[in-house]
């Protein structure tokens, strides 16, 4: 039996129509847009619209993790945590958000986003509820003059639950949009809508905390965020959002997506080696060839065929396709260059977000603390600028960058392939590099120490880092879908999303070490402040860290350039990006 005859026998099997999918919630929701019944077309549009709105709400809720700087410094002053402990909580939250992402993405591709949204409701509601109780208990203990007590270990557990819940909710939202709107001309913008909402969430929630759920000082002025009530608010809000997504986040026409991807792989000649379907073909029909093909077509199209057999077959086909695309993704060298570059670029941004409050604190000595700019202000600036940057980057990607007609994996072609063209063409990789350079401007300005005692200009740092970080994070999933397709998006993007966790932990530890070393030489030690509550003031607390961050961002840019223009890079392979 030749490979060509094997492929011919396999092809009709892989193209067979079925409405079943592997996921329980999306398994019966495949309604074709091309179906002649207008009522069914309207139903399809309604399902997609509801799923889109639900995805936006889910992303808005998932962004609660970005406001850690709003209350992180209060863990230091109210619960007597050290800077290492605060970064330990932030790192645990980041690790638990990013580390499970490959598994979460894998499950999202295979069982659908709805079940993961339900898991997020349990984890986020429970995590913030536990954190609220622990914070209140710690504050009451120290307010009563107690010592030798810490809520640190269970607080880490609470934020681990928050991180995993955020991962489930966020990936459910963006996977829903990536797959439901993968065919449109503005698929980049539709994909980035929940990503932008994730960034906007930081601004909205920081304003809720600073303007509504705040502590009132003895003189009647607004104080810091009321952490206890803020955590309770997030617990209830995210539990409701997660439960809503359980019933509304679904992939419409998923089986059509799978069938189209299989046909694309068939045309590319990559169907060889599918033992599952070859054994099925030989077992059911015994022979291969034209007669066997006729029998296969008859068997597949037979209206009396058993529904259970159809369902099992559809599950096998979907699993085979997703596993094959995962292997191809992992075996692509350019993916690894891209992942390393993404890690080097995004890690500094993650660490800055988690430590923004303490970085601002280093700009002022204790006697000028009253004139300090607030962390809430710059959390809002970062969130707002990041949201705008995400939308602008996605819009530029849709309007200026070349796009292939197909939504499936790009195999690469030495000859021209059909494109959606525009008068001015700018590669998405060029946009990505520009965003990374903007991010490095913020770290460079901070590294020079130019803002020491000039916190009023800190918006330069928070604005540039927010813009660069937001644009990089919006362009990354777009690039993933353009090169490697949307059908296995959750798994592919989940693998890449491991890198921010590594970067966040690494830079969090480096920043903490530099901060503590600077604190040992800080004037505060001679000003009567007890050693247990040492704060660091001056550029020695952060300068060397941000110099190193700037250099690594530039190295990350070189890695991205190599994946694009290097040997056997995307450009050389004819990949449209």
Short description:
The protein is mostly helical and 577 residues long.
In CATH, the homologous superfamily of the largest domain goes by the name MFS general substrate transporter like domains
Give the uncertain stretches in residue-range form: 1-34, 273-304, 414-421, 524-533
What class do helices, strands and sheet pairing give?
A: mainly alpha
Name the beta content range.
under 5%
What is the level 1 CATH name of the largest domain?
Mainly Alpha
Overall strand count: 4
* Helix run count: 20
CATH architecture field of the largest domain: Up-down Bundle
> Average pLDDT value?
79
Transmembrane segments: 49-72, 84-104, 116-135, 155-177, 189-208, 228-249, 429-452, 458-486, 493-514, 546-564
Keywords: Membrane, Transmembrane, Transmembrane helix, Transport, Vacuole
Subcellular location: Vacuole membrane
Pfam family, one: MFS_1
Would you mind describing this structure in some detail?
With 577 residues, the protein is mainly α. It has two domains: 3-30 and 257-323, no CATH class; 38-252 and 332-364 and 375-565, MFS general substrate transporter like domains (Growth Hormone, Chain: A), CATH 1.20.1250.20. It has helices at 3-14, 38-62, 68-78, 83-98, 101-111, 113-143, 152-180, 187-211, 227-248, 254-268, 275-285, 290-301, 307-330, 333-361, 375-400, 428-447, 459-484, 489-496, 498-520, 543-565; strands spanning 214-216, 222-225, 403-404, 419-420. The strands form two sheets. A two-stranded antiparallel sheet has the order 1-2. Strands 3-4 form a two-stranded antiparallel sheet. Helix 14 runs antiparallel to helix 15. It is globular. Mean pLDDT is 79; it is low at 1-34, 273-304, 414-421 and 524-533.
């Amino acid at each position: 039996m030749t490979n060509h005859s094997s492929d011919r026998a396999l092809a009709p099997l892989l193209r067979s129509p079925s409405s079943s999918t592997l996921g329980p919630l999306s398994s019966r929701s495949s309604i074709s847009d091309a179906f002649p019944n207008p009522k069914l077309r309207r139903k399809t549009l309604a399902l997609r619209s509801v799923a889109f709105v639900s995805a936006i709400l889910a992303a808005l809720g998932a962004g609660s993790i970005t406001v850690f700087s709003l209350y992180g410094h209060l863990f230091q002053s109210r619960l007597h945590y050290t800077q290492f402990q605060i970064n330990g909580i932030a790192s645990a939250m980041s690790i638990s958000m990013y580390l499970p992402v490959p598994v979460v993405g894998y499950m999202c591709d295979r069982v659908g986003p709805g079940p993961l949204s339900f898991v997020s409701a349990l984890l986020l509601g429970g995590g913030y509820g536990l954190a609220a109780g622990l914070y209140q208990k710690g504050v009451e203990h120290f307010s009563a003059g107690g010592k030798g007590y810490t809520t640190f270990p269970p607080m880490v557990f609470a934020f681990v639950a928050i991180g995993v819940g955020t991962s489930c909710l966020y990936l459910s939202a963006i996977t829903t949009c990536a797959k439901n709107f993968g065919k449109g001309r503005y698929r980049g913008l539709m994909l980035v809508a929940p990503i932008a909402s994730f960034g906007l969430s930081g601004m909205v929630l920081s304003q809720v905390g600073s303007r509504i759920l705040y502590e009132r000082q003895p003189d009647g002025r607004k104080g810091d965020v009321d952490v206890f009530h803020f955590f309770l608010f997030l617990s209830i809000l995210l539990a409701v959002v997660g439960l809503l997504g359980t019933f509304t986040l679904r992939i419409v026409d998923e089986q059509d997506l799978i069938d189209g991807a299989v046909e694309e792989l068939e045309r590319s000649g990559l169907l060889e080696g599918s033992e599952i379907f070859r054994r099925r073909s030989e077992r059911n029909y015994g022979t291969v060839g034209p007669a066997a093909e006729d029998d296969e077509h008859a068997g597949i199209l037979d209206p009396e065929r058993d529904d259970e057999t159809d369902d099992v077959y559809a599950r096998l086909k979907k699993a085979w396709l997703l596993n094959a695309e995962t292997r191809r993704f992992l075996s692509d060298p350019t993916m690894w260059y891209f992942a390393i570059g993404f890690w080097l670029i995004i890690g500094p941004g993650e660490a800055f977000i988690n430590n923004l409050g303490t970085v601002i604190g280093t700009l002022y000595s204790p006697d000028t603390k009253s004139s300090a700019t607030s962390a809430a202000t710059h959390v809002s600036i970062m969130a707002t600028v990041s949201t705008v940057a995400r939308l602008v980057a996605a819009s530029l990607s849709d309007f200026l960058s070349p796009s292939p007609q197909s939504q499936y994996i790009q195999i690469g072609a030495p000859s021209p392939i059909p494109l959606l063209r525009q008068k001015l063409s700018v590669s998405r990789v060029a946009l990505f590099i520009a965003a990374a350079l903007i991010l490095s401007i913020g770290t460079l300005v901070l590294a020079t120490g130019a803002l020491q005692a000039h916190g009023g200009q800190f918006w330069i740092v928070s604005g540039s880092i927010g813009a660069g970080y937001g644009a990089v994070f919006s362009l990354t999933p777009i690039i993933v879908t353009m090169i490697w397709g949307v059908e296995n998006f959750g798994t592919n993007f989940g693998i890449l999303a491991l890198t921010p966790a590594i970067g966040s932990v690494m830079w969090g530890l480096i920043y903490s070490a530099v901060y503590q070393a600077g604190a040992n030489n800080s004037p505060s030690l001679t000003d009567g402040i007890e050693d247990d509550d040492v704060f660091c003031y001056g550029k020695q607390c952060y300068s060397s860290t941000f110099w190193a961050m700037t250099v690594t961002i530039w190295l990350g840019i070189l890695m991205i350039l190599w994946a694009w223009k290097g040997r056997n890079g995307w450009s050389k392979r004819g990949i449209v990006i």
